[in-house]
Design a protein that fits this description.
This protein is α+β, with helices and mostly antiparallel strands. The chain contains 5 helices and 14 strands. The protein is globular, with a radius of gyration of 24 Å. Bound molecules: uric acid (URC). The site of uric acid has 7 residues, from helix 5. Pathway: Purine metabolism; urate degradation; (S)-allantoin from urate: step 1/3. It comes from Buglossoides arvensis (corn gromwell). One of its GO terms (molecular function) is urate oxidase activity.
Length: 309
């Protein structure tokens, strides 16, 4: 927040445009098309305090102008870019073009359009919507300091066994039985921080951030499920979450911290009985009632400890 002290009061403000939706097609000479759809939020920390204190709008970058700029910059990306590249480009623009803007914060959610295959062959211009979304947050200051965070939203994972929950506190309020056999279902939200602190330190490889996104997703999924035949036992969502975060930090040295949110989405055992018929449906790890709410909420952040050297 851009901060001002006025008349003994601390005043913080920011402004921008939210949910600017843009689609961008790139058409290669060989007829292959690439497509991205983004929902963009731009937030500017700028010296436009006079508009709040004195009705003077002369330092405001109009939010309508911010919206237009998203389309202009999308047009300027003549070659395919990652969602992170686009966020960095926008943030660089706002902080360099306007003397008033000290920091730009750009958040983007990318819709998961995936190329379809027809008869086993990738289609040149056909896409279908997938499930989980690629997100990014870029914070860039006029002084050149950069922070790039990326993430995944809505990665729904489920396994039908190799999960349990035992040894937790039992008291007069506890009814949950201990188990070594249950379903485990979650919808992972993760964000991770890259350790690139300036534009000049960014990898030059084209589409680097998209590749990393796929790598991180694979590390998460592999850790959650274990090997195809044996799987891996989960003693709690907490333990599995920790191992997933650790796998990401262990595999990718350019990531300095991860934040993981993994709701425990419950599938309740179904038992149906009546006075006359005590065993209409007797649960044997087979019939479940899927639920949305309430759900367990489990989240954690795992960071590298900064070396003092
Ligand atoms: O993996 C779990 N962690 C919990 O903290 C918890 N609490 C609960 O009721 N079931 C579970 N499962």
């Amino acid at each position: 927040m851009a901060e001002t002290i006025n008349g003994g009061l601390k005043f913080e403000q920011r402004h921008g445009k939210s949910r600017v939706r843009v689609g961008r097609v790139w058409k290669l000479p060989n007829g292959s098309h690439f497509f991205a759809e983004w929902k963009v939020n731009v937030s500017l920390l700028s010296d436009c305090v006079a508009s709040y204190l004195h009705q003077d709008n002369s330092d405001i970058v109009a939010t309508d102008t911010i919206k237009n700029t998203v389309y202009v910059k999308a047009k300027e990306c003549s070659e395919q870019v990652t969602v992170e590249d686009f966020a960095i480009k926008l943030a660089q623009h706002f902080t360099s073009f306007y003397q008033q803007v000290t920091t730009a914060i750009v958040n983007i959610v990318e819709k998961p359009w995936e190329r379809v295959s027809v008869n086993g062959q990738p289609h040149k211009h056909g896409f279908k919507l997938g499930s989980e979304k690629h997100t990014t947050e870029v914070i860039f200051s006029k002084l050149g300091t950069l922070q790039v965070n990326s993430g995944i939203e809505g990665l729904a994972l489920l396994k039908t066994t190799q999960s349990g929950f035992e040894g937790f506190i039992r008291d007069k309020y506890t009814i949950l039985p201990e188990t070594r056999e249950r379903m485990l279902a979650t919808e992972v939200t993760i964000s991770w921080k890259y350790n690139y602190n300036s534009v000049s330190s960014l990898p030059v490889k084209p589409l680097y951030f998209s590749e990393r996104y796929m790598d991180v997703k694979k590390a998460l999924v592999d850790t959650f499920f274990g090997s195809p035949n044996e799987g891996v036992y989960s003693p709690s969502v907490q333990r599995t979450l920790y191992l997933m975060g650790k796998a990401v930090l262990g595999r990718f040295p350019d990531i300095s911290s991860v934040h993981l949110k993994m709701p425990n989405i419950h599938f309740l055992p179904v038992n149906l009985s009546s006075k006359d018929n005590p065993e209409i449906v007797k649960f044997a790890d087979d019939v479940y009632l899927p639920t949305d709410e309430p759900h367990g909420s489990i989240e954690a952040r795992l960071s590298r400890v900064q070396s003092k050297m």
